[in-house]
């Protein structure tokens, strides 16, 4: 169990390093105002950040997801496995319920972590920079707004993570079974990468509009007066101002990120476990660590 956890953490770190530039682009596209469009699309956003802020601009806020990764993986692995065992049978319904439970519980860490990440990704570069890092960001928010400020976007995070983790675990289980991911199977690693990447894409598609709302709520007030009174008001104002397409803004960069993130995660997990365990195969099958939604 400890080895699975450590391998999952290593895989998660690899996934964050691969996927964070795409996440930065996604957040910037999601929160930009229709009255003052700064980026024309995913590629233009990438090019603008590289030109104005160098490659380091794509990795703004990296410390926050890395900081929370260990705790999130611990919660996800522990809750999903124990819930599945408590439900008594490995069925598609129970896979979804166990994944949903894991997604809901890890929001306790995920929400403040993503709040800090979003604020760091959006802050100005150079002397105008307000936050020195993830912990400094959360400390500043807590000093100004208290515990409620640190947990801004908690409800929208729950609405996103609970069903999306259910979809992820269900899809991953179905895909690994369908692809025949058994110990010693031919092309096992490519199959695992395909299953993990596809499941990640499906989980994002299942709740992406909620993610747009969450990002807007967590970025609200960063450069002036707060615009939104809550989730419903954010949905209403966003729809009135920009139409239904606003809830798909940043989707391309998210889907571009989803597959390589999961591919990097599973490749790292496989390498770590194979070196740690040696040539002896695991009796109950390959270790399939589940990546988080970072």
Describe the protein in words.
- The chain is mainly α and 294 residues long.
- The longest helix has 32 residues.
- It is a multi-pass membrane protein.
- Its main location: mitochondrion.
- Belongs to the mitochondrial carrier (TC 2.A.29) family.
Most strands sheet: none
Mean pLDDT: 83
C-alpha termini separation? 22 Å
Spans of at least 5 consecutive residues with low confidence: 281-294
Radius of gyration: 19 Å
Order of helices and strands: HHHHHHHHHH
Helix count, per DSSP?
10
- Report the helical percentage: over 70%
Shape label: globular
Estimated structural class: mainly alpha
Strand content: under 5%
Q: How many strand elements?
A: 0
Give the structure's gist in a few sentences.
The protein has 294 residues and is mainly alpha-helical. It is 72% helix and 0% strand. It has helices at residues 2-31, 42-53, 63-87, 92-105, 107-122, 134-150, 154-179, 188-219, 231-242, 251-277.
List the helices and strands and how they pair.
Blueprint: H1 2-31, H2 42-53, H3 63-87, H4 92-105, H5 107-122, H6 134-150, H7 154-179, H8 188-219, H9 231-242, H10 251-277
Distinctive features:
disordered C terminus
